[in-house]
From TrEMBL:
InterPro entries: NTF2-like_dom_sf, YchJ-like_M. Residues 29-121 form the YchJ-like middle NTF2-like domain. This is YchJ-like middle NTF2-like domain-containing protein. Pfam families: YchJ_M-like.
Length: 124
């Protein structure tokens, strides 16, 4: 069994997979962030769109998201800070030309009922 891509040192089946396949709901913004990173690694675009807040979902194109997920080789996730509705992270990857890249973002999340959603982010 593979370890989870989010860096938790847990098996994928015991970490982000239950969120991605709808068996569980993320209990915090950080857990949702980790599962979304893992969804990029696994190219689970439907999960990425479903966990994007309805107010900003229209700005996320399924084909573009799928291309970004599949054209990059995701290396690791670093959570810099997670508090309440904000998670700052760095996602390290190789682009389609095998050039190392870092996506540094401070993401905003919103909780509605028992579900967390990605709203938007500030990139650095």
């Amino acid at each position: 069994m593979p370890y989870c891509h989010c860096g938790s040192d847990k098996l994928l089946s015991d970490c982000c997979e239950p969120y991605i396949f709808g068996a569980q709901k993320a209990a915090s913004s950080e857990i949702l962030m980790r599962s979304r990173y893992t969804a990029y690694c696994l190219q689970r675009v439907d999960y990425l769109l479903a966990t994007t807040h309805s107010s900003t979902r229209k700005y996320h194109d399924k084909k573009e998201t799928a291309a970004f997920a599949s054209q990059n080789h995701w290396m690791r996730l670093e959570i810099i800070n997670a508090s309440g509705t904000v998670v700052e992270f760095k996602a390290y990857y190789l682009d389609n030309q095998l050039q190392p890249k870092t996506h540094h973002e401070k993401s905003t999340f919103s909780k509605e009922g028992d579900s967390w959603f990605y709203v938007d982010g500030e990139w650095y």
